[in-house]
Design brief:
With about 450 residues, the protein is an alpha/beta fold. It is built from 15 helices and 15 strands. The chain has helices at about 40-55, 75-80, 85-105, 120-130, 160-165, 205-215, 230-245, 280-290, 290-300, 310-325, 345-355, 360-375, 385-395, 410-425, 430-440, and strands at about 5, 10-15, 25-30, 60-65, 135-140, 140-145, 180-185, 200-205, 220-225, 255-260, 265, 270, 305-310, 445-450, 450-455. It binds zinc ion.
Length: about 450
Amino acid sequence: MNILIFDSLSKKKKKFIPINKNNVRLYACGPTVYDYAHIGNARMAVVTDLLVRVLKTKFKNVTFVSNITDIDDKIIQASNELKISIKDLTSKFFKIYNDEMLSLNVNLPDIQPKATEYIKDMIIMIEKLIKNKCAYVEKNHVMFDVESYKHYGKLSRRSIQEQLDGARIEIGEYKRNARDFVLWKPSDDNQPGWISPWGRGRPGWHIECSAMSKKCLGTPFDIHCGGVDLTFPHHENEIAQSCSAIQPNAEPGKFCRYWFHNGFVTYNGEKMSKSLGNIKLVNDLLKKYDGETIRLCLISAQYRQPLNWTKDILEQSKTTLNRIYKNSKEIHNERYEFPLPLENEFFLEFLESLYDDLNTPKALGILSKLINLKKNKSNGNDIKLIQAINESLKLLGISKKAKPIKKIYSESIEMLIEERNKARKEKNFDKADEIREKLKSQKIEIEDTQEGTVWKKLD
Ligand SMILES: [Zn+2]
């Protein structure tokens, strides 16, 4: 059975063929951590988590990276307004974000790189872009020259005029063309900054995803995920940067193979926005509803469709879940482990619907059908049915029993690798070996390559 994924670049539903079937690699644009997450953020995390779960039914090893933006003008502004340091502010909301996602049964990404820990990699990439004549330096700014990349606009399918409508038009003293965007900008004494070849400054937002996906996954990788609102300009810019750093005008496929975009969440049919005061925070919802109920709402529509959040949707999901749990009491006492019961025709029908571009409405319909079948007394003890319902609940992440496990965060891995590299430089090989073993005990294998040390998960 093949997994089909709609690729937003080619606008086609395509059979998923990984670059390396022994390690499927995904990247998703994560949150900017200065405030509570809203349901739009949660939808991205939940559907991406579901995608990873579905991929894992077919491929043994899946590596999922999702970044944390911990330096940004909005963060600087919030830190000034709240009078707390940027570090304290971002650490607080990073932890809150992960805790909330765990409440929604989201398995945390394997790696959550923080932008501030990858500044060096961003500088290296920007230098490469300048060398390849795809970026220019002007008054301590480094700008990406959009005209240098002939594939620009392919993902969002926007014409140059439409791109201009979406961009800030003004051509500053450092900006040659309206469509060019910032890779690096100067910081004044009151702003956070890092030493760079272009003076003390900080990165633009887009470059972090290009630098971190390259460092944590390698390019090309398989699937790039994110909310549809990021298609332009963020993802368009990521493609331009990542590909131009390889070679001027490199094809978008040199960066990643599939673009997976989830749709908007609206509230009563309106776009959620601060000015309308209709933003729904996960934090508030979790006070009234459990995570499984919120998660079920978030997967009730197919991920590419807009999801209209209403007052009733949560109550409906609560009723649905109660019905499922009521009719599957003994199911939760049954524990089935992987491998999945692929000989089970009930479960296969369910799985097939998810393999079809995560068709969750169909999958939920099949689950409901299975529950009805089980309610029929003659099927009440059918082990295949019990097994199929149990596995379906676990795969959708709405089982009360199968909770996600907190993982070690990538930063500790990165720190250990840095420590090991330092030990090697000092020719302290005993210590270097000791750290390698320590990582191995955490099921992390490291490899020293020309590009530096890379790591991967072991099973
Ligand atoms: Zn991104």
